[in-house]
Design goal:
The structure holds two protein chains of two kinds. Chain A is an alpha/beta fold. Chain A is built from 18 helices and 26 strands. Chain A is globular and about 85 Å long. In chain B, α2 packs antiparallel against α3, α2 crosses α4 and α6 runs parallel beside α7. The radius of gyration of chain B is 20 Å and the shape is elongated. Classes of the chains: A alpha/beta, B alpha+beta. Bound molecules: iron/sulfur cluster (3 copies) and FE2/S2 (inorganic) cluster (FES) (2 copies). One iron/sulfur cluster binds next to α4 and α5 of chain A.
Chain lengths: 653, 160
Amino acid sequence: MEPNVKLTIDGYAVTVPVGTNLLEAAQTVGVEIPHLCYLKSFLGIGACRICLVEIAGFRAPVTACTTLVQADMLVITDSARLRADRKFVLDLILSVHPPRCGQCEKVGVCQLIKYASKYRIGKSTFEYTEIGQAVTDPNPFIRRDMRYCILCGKCVRICQGQGTNVLAFLGRGIKLGVGTPAASSLKDNGCTFCGSCVEVCPVSALAEVPKLGKGREIKYTKTASVCMQCGNACPTQVATYEDELVKVNALDNADQTTGYLCAVGRFGFYLRQGEKRLTTPLKKSSGIWQETDWTEALTIISQRFKKGNSGLIATGTILNQEVLDLATFAQATQISNLAGTPALYASNEALRAPAAQLEQADLIILVGLNPSQQQRVFPALDAVIKSRVRQGAKLVVLNDVATGLGALAEVEILDEPVMLLEAFGRCAGMSIPQDVLGATTQAAIIAKAAKLYQAAQNPVLLCEPAYYQACVNAIGNKGPVLVMPYEANAKGVALMLPAPEQLNCRELLNGGVDTLYIAGEMLAGKNVQTDFLIVQQPYFNGVALQADIVLPAPLPWEKTGTVVDWQGQLKNLQQACPVPPGVKTYRQVFSELGQMLGCRLEWTAEDAVIAAAQLRPEPVVRELSTAFTPALSLVERVKLLKELNGLVARSLE
Amino acid sequence: MEIKSEIDSNVLTVLTDEQKKKAMIIQALFVIQKEHNYLPAEQLKQLSERLELSTADIYSTASFYKQFYMQPRGKNVVCVCVGTACHVSGAPEILETFEKTFDLKAGETDPDLNVTLETVGCVGCCGLAPVVTVNEAEILGEITTAEAEKVAGKVWPKEA
Ligand code: SF4
Ligand code: SF4
Ligand code: SF4
Ligand code: FES
Ligand code: FES
């Protein structure tokens, strides 16, 4: 732990770690110093000059974002002089900012107008000079209009910090601008369209294309939700305008790892508008799809269930409460075959392992995973690891193929991971002589990794699910082992469901039952062999195409509930949009089916979800040879994630 | 000598690979410009691939320095000083003269690469204002519009 410093800010006694800047120190006691260019977790650059504060003994005001705390400092963040200074700074910024706030849709999140009205400056006292220009770069995601840019550099820094490095400061002096070289397109510069740059832009220079023309942000309603598109389960903030979803932001929440969303999480809602959203049940009769009504569809299903030999599957894309509702339904109707799709790629122990946070890790050991923003394989994980490394954490990579993160790793060892983990585990328990470390043999490199592990305070092993047990065997109890699942609520499903009584998920999918019901979007491409297949999901795609009956389901932002994310944390979703007419929730469906089957269903209460989410086994133990063989090959598993990439790539063509 | 190399190696250990590569950019740009007379986009792309740095890094360095050119340059470069002293002594008229005779705007080069017309902020001999330089070798002080026309005709003789 860093030692602390005591100082006084606006009369408040403040105690913060050495190295904290005044802006963040003030925030700890609720004092908000105006700022336009400061970007959390990055070094202050002092570009905008609006965070000026006075310090006793200093002749002139200094910028709070670049000044570090010192013992016994006396800081004043508000005074007549500071107000006048800030007003002048704003006056200068506004002199090169288009005087068109009246029409600007960013009002509501624009920081410039926020401060302009706080310091009561309507229009610059200087004559407006236009600098920069609107950029011609047609794409479905990001609109750039550099006339609005105030050169805070946040977009450049965030893109660099997460390792994509698309944007740069170009030119100098009055010609200084921010953008891509020689006005080339974002796409040609390797942009992944994650939208982080839009997220941090304090003004209207960068904006999301889908929301253009959909009113001013001040009128938007914002609701917390979670992206359910991959195992990262990124927390989101969903903005709606007149019940329509208009944009998605990353949820900036101090205790979450990521303020990052990939293009799928941020723009996916918009990309999928072209796909066929189900708003009425469909049935297939003699090979032809027909629309049907709910009564008929549910009657057919209940008759199938009455015949017996049925199975139910919860996918990792539905919420905890929905999984429990499915379990309640199974129990009441005595359908004993109930399983979850996460079991296709991870063991129950791996999924139920205790929660852990990457945020605090000073050493990350990445096993068998190759996250990549460019390929959109766990893109948020890639961004998080890169920003952790930027902030000083060390990285060790164990994999059998070269990874995109290898260049950032302190140690990268390429070989069969289970074998490497065994060798690593042996080294980790020994004292390693210094002279071994200079050598370049594989043994010496493993020893180097073990040495890093021994020195780390908070090591975290992060692995592909198949390597969970090998990781646990390698390290025992120092540092948690986290598996990265492929579905957003994989861990929730494992925690909510009882262990399968009869057939497991793979057996159910391979024809173990005559009638099979699947709740939620199934992993794409899996061939389901069953006599009669029922799928309930929002879109008509994937496994639904193999079904006999397809039922519509709500999208994540149309429901309230929780998931357990990859770090084992419970995350909340709040309903932001109404469930469209014709769509029924899972609970409605179970309840109506229950009635038809003559069963009374008693739903589990919300606190049961929380209890189940906290139900964790005893600390992990080393076991010999409990190797877990996933039902899906690694290639198939990674392919699931590539589907996401396809969605984005197609939209850019 | 030995001490120095020890310092060097210590410095190198604190530099990350990325910093070492970034330090290379300017040298590389000089080499490219020497060969091509400007920085062709294709060369910069190759440089970014070779150094495994983003094109953003390369362009942001290149565009910071006035000495690096992103466009092909003419065989001759006429540079009109528009610094304060020259400005008050008539630089705007001088510049206009060149613009008219060459039919080029400041910063432009003719398609056949005969001449590039540029401006600069103070050459450092304000006593001679207004000042024009040709190919950074010849410094013409106290220049008049008539002389400017002559210089233009000499640098880029056009058939009548
Ligand atoms: S969208 Fe993402 S990758 Fe593209 S420029 Fe913005 S921050 Fe960089
Ligand atoms: S585009 Fe936005 S974030 Fe980027 S420098 Fe300009 S104002 Fe700042
Ligand atoms: S990384 Fe995964 S969970 Fe996060 S926004 Fe992208 S698709 Fe959604
Ligand atoms: S926030 Fe400190 S100078 Fe911009
Ligand atoms: S202003 Fe032209 S030489 Fe100084």
